Please model this.
Amino acid sequence: FALLLAAQFALVAAIGIAVVRYRLYAIEQLVNRTLVYVTLTGLLLVVYSGITIGLGVVVGGDSTWVVAVATLLVAVGFRPLRSRIQDVVDRRFRRARYEGVRLVRAFEDELRDGVRAPEEIVPVLADALQDPLAQLLFWIPEAEAYADVTGEIPRLLDDGRARREIRRDEARTAVLLHDPSLLERRDLLDGVLGAAALSIEMARLAVEVRLQLVEVEASRARIVEAGYEERRRLERDLHDGAQQRLVSLALELRIAQAEVSTGAGELRMRLDRAIEQVRGALEDLRDLSRGIHPAILTEDGLGSALREVTGRSPIPVQFQLCVDERLPDQI
Model:
């Protein structure tokens, strides 16, 4: 009999240890919901009874519309009253969850007001979960990978942290890397992540837009680089092709002019005019070449190029250069 009695006490003690230490049967949530709904039921019953009795006394008897009004008021007050009771119970019996959800909701209010950026949800979650090593990575569908708030795509290493995938409307949103001890505090983890679902989605969209802007900027840089290289190619073609041929033609005309006898004055005049036209065409090609790809920019820099331009201007121009360092060729 003593052995059987000890076994019964041992069973009760084992259940108690399992409930307290390992949260068997989700006892905290069970107690929480029991307190909420028992209190809610009692308050709604008191309100319903007070309304029906009060209106019944005023009307002077039972009336169908009295019952209807009482039922309507109880139905309208059910949701806000339940939320209020839930907050009171959480504040008393689940303080960590209450404070975490409060932090997230306060951040969401500031986010709506434009006071804070969506990406700041990461440190807010770390504070709400009381986990300074918590890290939030956002799912980027185009890259099919997770990215942090800066847009970088890190490697997911097994560093001992637990992973919790976050979904909204059955769509993958993010993954939370957190302290494994939070797995024993499911109420805190689920409550905070549930309250932060909208903020996390907004942060994911902001990171996705930032990555798209980076891609657009990289594309524009490639276009600029391609245009720069094309201008360099045109400048080389003009310099090594047409300009050299015109220089050679001018030299040939000079040689021909020197071999013409002194008596052929008209022919010498025509050769002079031809040489002047070749020289003018050569200057036009040089100006065109400088406009396509000013060699002085890459050789002597921006200051020398501006001085050359202002020196050719018919209007007196003064300028002050505020850039001291050497700029890249593309700029």
User: Anything to note?
Assistant: The CA atoms of residues 256 and 271 lie 8 Å apart. DSSP finds ten helices and four strands in the chain. The chain has a mean pLDDT of 82. Residues 197-259 form the longest helix (63 residues).
